[in-house]
Design goal:
The chain has 546 residues and is mainly α. The protein is built from 25 helices and no strands. The radius of gyration is 25 Å and the shape is globular. About 4% of the residues have low confidence.
Length: 546
């Protein structure tokens, strides 16, 4: 009787999880279809000029390209030292890869305003030194400023991926080049860079997509002539209610993203092929030679390291510190902080965030685990391209396009639609982490459990969930932080009488209440840090008792 009840419970839980997964897929497919429907309806619309669309699209591609180039230049430079040198702060640099995923772009933008804004710290110092009336640095509010902000915001992602790949490279080819008389510079450009190219491409393509879909940074810093597709879609749909123009721009944006994703898939396959090809060399290096030999640094390396550290400190660490400094060093200090947290707007926004973030994270983890366990059982070797492509599709849809499509589909947004829209875009993040944990599970264990279990779901509940527990907890934390920091979807959907902490922070910033916005941004960062600390503690306690 007990086994029968357990089997009924397991089948019911699997059915509920599958229903949630289908619901999230529907929450992605319906808005995607709805966002393009105005193109096929006869509605009054402003004349869509082909030259205007081409200029906006090219400008968006150019900003994303140069932002990615900046992130790659800084990221590869940092990866050289983290992969080949030992120095204090190495673990700190590698841990910064979580910042672009967890710290909202709005918070980074506020940090840059606090440091490089018209009334920022750098301009205040320059005004006092040179006794000028106007702020000498105004690059932040231009295309160059957008490129700098996005490039340094995303460089840790490139550093983490390239450094990990660099550490596993076999020294055989480089040693052969040295024996043939090649200098270190030629070895780097002809051997090392070629071997790292799949990892560089696989890290730069997601960065390109993040910059291509950038909304909040462009909205805050973009000048009238430097708008992008994402901002123009928002203005057409929300400000002008011209959904036909918004649909045309959304179609072009999505097609461009799909093209980039195709390149990303090809680079990923190439990287995996290269990884398999070099596995034997990386695991079994030549006898008597360590896989990692640190060579004495030259003077040029010290100069380059100092220059790179200066750039990272100025354009990455300083804005992060400027968020807190911009709030607590403002006039009023602690009283302003107390005033903000006691305000009705802040309390309402905090309650809204505490309502949406856990629900979104729970849906993402449920959908991610459901799909990860399915393909782990049905396609253990990962040969099905269709199954591998499905989690990549949400990467081709921006938050603004999702918001516009959801608005067209449901007309009047609610908290439920907001949660479903966020989960539909964020669940692949949970899937990747959970699937990585399931891939570490031996196939023989899964086969034995499927053979000996009385009911089919036993494999999921007795083997897969315990094995993927760490990945599930980490995925929950990441999705929680992504939902907490999302500003675009709440802004586009405009749920009546509802606010989130990130949206409240944006409204304070747009009202030029930068000190109050920095205080809210600091609280948002602290909440994200607390969530990750709790997830890490759960994983550590599970490892200690497991």
């Amino acid at each position: 009787m007990t086994k029968r009840r357990t089997g009924i419970f397991e089948y019911g839980a699997c059915a509920i999880a599958s229903a949630f997964f289908i619901l999230i897929i529907g929450a992605f497919a319906i808005p995607l279809t709805a966002s393009f429907l105005p193109l096929f309806t006869k509605t009054e619309s402003a004349c869509i000029a082909g030259g205007y669309i081409a200029r906006v699209a090219l400008r968006t591609l150019a900003i994303a390209f140069f932002s990615t180039l900046t992130a790659a230049a800084v990221g590869i430079g940092a990866a050289f030292f983290t992969a080949n040198r030992s120095f204090p702060g190495k673990r700190l640099i590698l841990s910064l890869s979580a910042v672009p995923l967890c710290v909202p772009s709005l918070i980074i933008a506020l940090g840059f305003v606090a440091v490089f804004g018209i009334n920022g710290a750098v301009n205040s110092i320059l005004i006092k030194i040179f006794h000028v009336k106007n702020a000498p640095l105004t690059f932040l509010y231009s295309t160059a400023g957008i490129v700098v902000v996005q490039g340094f915001y995303n460089f840790p992602l490139v550093t983490a991926v390239v450094s990990s790949s660099w550490e596993t490279l076999s020294p055989v080819k480089r040693d052969a080049a040295r024996l043939l008389g090649a200098n270190e510079r030629r070895i780097f450009f002809t051997v090392t860079l070629h071997e790292l190219s799949p990892a560089i491409a696989a890290s730069c393509v997601p960065v390109f997509l993040y910059c291509f879909f950038s909304f909040m940074i462009v909205l805050l810093f973009g000048s009238p002539g430097s708008s992008t597709l994402e901002v123009e879609i928002y203005r057409a749909a929300r400000a002008s209610l011209d959904f036909k123009t918004a649909a045309a721009l959304a179609l072009i944006e999505t097609l461009c993203a799909m093209t980039v994703l195709f390149v990303y898939g090809a680079c990923k396959s190439t990287a995996e092929t290269g990884e398999v090809r070099h596995t034997g060399e990386a695991i079994a290096p030549p006898i008597g030679r360590a896989p990692f030999e640190e060579k004495p640094a030259k003077i040029i390396e010290y100069v380059f390291a100092a220059f790179l550290a200066f750039l990272v400190a100025l354009f990455f660490l300083a804005p992060l510190a400027g968020i807190a400094a911009g709030g607590f060093s403002a006039q009023g200090g602690l009283p302003s902080f107390i005033k903000i947290i006691n305000s009705q707007g802040f309390k309402k926004a905090l309650c809204g965030t505490c309502m949406t973030a856990p629900c979104t994270a729970l849906l993402c983890v449920t959908a991610g685990f459901t799909y990860a366990s399915y393909i782990r059982i049905r396609d253990p070797l990962g040969k099905s391209e269709i199954l591998r492509t499905l989690p990549m599709l949400p990467m081709a849809l921006s938050s603004v396009v999702m918001g516009v499509g959801m608005t067209i589909a449901v007309r009047r947004a609610s908290v439920t639609t907001l949660v479903l829209a966020e989960a539909a875009l964020a669940w692949p993040l949970a899937f990747r982490q959970i699937y990585a944990s399931l891939c570490a599970l031996p196939q023989s264990t899964i086969d034995a459990c499927r053979m000996l279990s009385p009911v089919a779901p036993d494999t999921v509940f007795r083997i897969m969930i315990p094995s993927a527990k760490r990945g599930i907890v980490s995925a929950f934390g990441f999705c929680f932080a992504v939902s907490m920091g999302d500003t675009a979807l709440p802004l586009v959907l405009s749920v009546p009488r509802f606010d989130t902490l990130s949206l409240y922070t944006y409204r304070l910033a747009s009202a030029y209440r930068f000190s109050d916005a920095c205080i809210c941004g600091t609280i948002l960062c602290v909440l994200c840090a607390l969530v990750f600390a709790c997830c890490k503690k759960i994983n550590n306690s599970g490892a200690a008792y497991g």
